[in-house]
Structure formats: structure tokens, C-alpha cells
Write a structure and sequence with these properties.
The chain is an alpha+beta fold. About 60% of the residues lie in helices and about 10% in strands.
């Protein structure tokens, strides 16, 4: 009788132990499932947060100044976070696909040019593609513009652009020289030859820069692509509308 009692107690202990182990396993599985769900939710939230930075441009009537900011943002992302990154950066282990921004001027580069027969314009490409760690629009165009701003000053250049006809297309050379110096707020030139030889190229190209900032572009929604694995935006395309604000 005593042995039977001990056997029952042992069997009960084993059963309780099995129940406890089963409960622990169930709890562990539920915890793992919760952690996986939580991790997946975090990843999805990160993708949404990332895409929202760019979806704001996924619309019509985007200003050229906004578009230029987007180009710089994409280049910075490609450098630091994508597989295009160089050297020691997050991209080496995050391995995200690089982003591409395509800007199509629709063959209307002439809409950006100054009203002049000047033939050394800067915006000569029909399309600009930013898909790497280097913004070709910046190196081909904006870096030169920054040099002009250092030399003449942004205010003076904007004044020269606003008074382009009165300065560069004025038949009265003395008046043109006065207008030029007034725009620069200092005496920089003494005759029309100085204006043409030293400054016409710079002002014409700055005219293009001002026009680009004012230009309006439509994002072609059908050309916006997403990475099939991560869900992140990988490409956006913009087309010039032919309009300026």
C-alpha cells in the first residue's frame, strides 16, 4: 500500500513537472512569436518612415529648388546607407539598394536660357540621372554657380538676372554700364566690353540656375519603384512641365 502511494506521488510529480515544462515551452513560443511580430512591426514602421521622406515629392508641381534638395538627399543616402557606399559606413552592412532620381527636361533646355544669343549655356543635357554617390547635376552645374556667388555675391547676381535686358541687351552702353554697377552696388566695370568679356557667361548661367529653381516638375507616379525585399523606394522620375512659378 505504501509503495502504491509513493508511486502515485511520483507519477503526480512527473505530471506536474511535464505540465510546468509544457507551460514554459508555450510561454517561450508565444514570446518568440511576439518578438518576431514586434520586430516585423518595427521594420515596417522604419520603411514607412523612410518612404515618407520621399513620398512628399511624389506629386505634381514640384519646384526645382525642392528637386535639387531631393537630389542631395538621395546622394547622401546612397553614400551612407546603400550598397554604393564607399569606405566604412552603414551601407556596408545594411545593404540597401541605392536610390535613383531621374530629371527629364523634355528637350526644353532653352526655356531656362537667358534672352540672349549667348551659346555657352550650362543646362545642355536633356536628362540628369542621380543614381550613385555623386550628384552629376551638382558637379556639372551647381558647383560652378557657387563659385560665381563667392565672386559677385548672391544678391548682385539676382539683381543682374532681374535686369538682364537692361544690361546685356541695352543699346545704350553707358546706361547698361550704370545698370550693371547699380545691380552690383559697386563700380565693377567701366565699359560694355568688360561686361561682355568678364560677366556675361556667369550671369547667363546664373540665369539658368534661377530659372531651374523656379521651374515646376511633375513626379511620374507610374515610374516610382520600390525594392521587392525591403519595400523602400528605389527610383523616382520627374518631368519638366514647361511652367515657372
Amino acid at each position: 500500500m505504501e509503495n502504491a502511494s509513493k508511486a502515485l506521488i511520483m507519477a503526480g510529480s512527473v505530471l506536474i513537472a511535464l505540465l510546468i515544462i509544457g507551460a514554459l515551452l508555450l510561454m517561450f513560443n508565444n514570446l518568440s512569436s511576439y518578438q518576431k511580430t514586434d520586430t516585423q512591426s518595427t521594420k515596417e514602421a522604419q520603411v514607412i518612415e523612410f518612404n515618407n521622406q520621399y513620398e512628399t515629392y511624389n506629386r505634381k508641381n514640384v519646384r526645382g529648388s525642392e528637386l535639387y534638395s531631393l537630389m542631395n538627399r538621395v546622394v547622401d543616402y546612397n553614400k551612407r546607407k546603400s550598397t554604393k557606399g564607399i569606405g566604412k559606413n552603414e551601407g556596408q552592412y545594411l545593404a540597401y539598394a541605392p536610390m535613383t532620381i531621374e530629371v527629364d527636361l523634355k528637350g526644353r533646355q532653352g526655356d531656362f536660357y537667358a534672352p540672349s544669343n549667348y551659346n555657352n549655356n550650362h543646362l545642355i543635357k536633356n536628362k540628369y540621372t542621380i543614381s550613385d554617390t555623386n550628384n552629376e547635376f551638382k558637379t556639372d552645374f551647381y558647383d560652378t554657380i557657387q563659385e560665381y556667388e563667392k565672386e559677385l555675391g548672391e544678391d548682385a547676381l539676382n539683381n543682374l538676372v532681374a535686369g538682364f535686358n537692361e544690361i546685356f541687351n541695352n543699346l545704350d552702353e553707358e546706361e547698361a554700364v550704370r545698370n550693371f554697377n547699380s545691380a552690383c552696388k559697386s563700380e565693377k566695370v567701366r565699359n560694355m566690353n568688360d561686361i561682355k568679356n568678364q560677366y556675361k557667361k556667369k550671369v547667363c548661367q546664373y540665369y539658368e540656375y534661377v530659372a531651374f529653381k523656379r521651374a515646376r516638375f511633375d513626379c511620374i507616379t507610374n515610374n516610382t519603384t520600390y525594392d521587392s525585399k525591403t519595400g523602400r523606394i528605389t527610383k523616382m522620375k520627374f518631368e519638366f512641365t514647361g511652367k515657372f512659378e
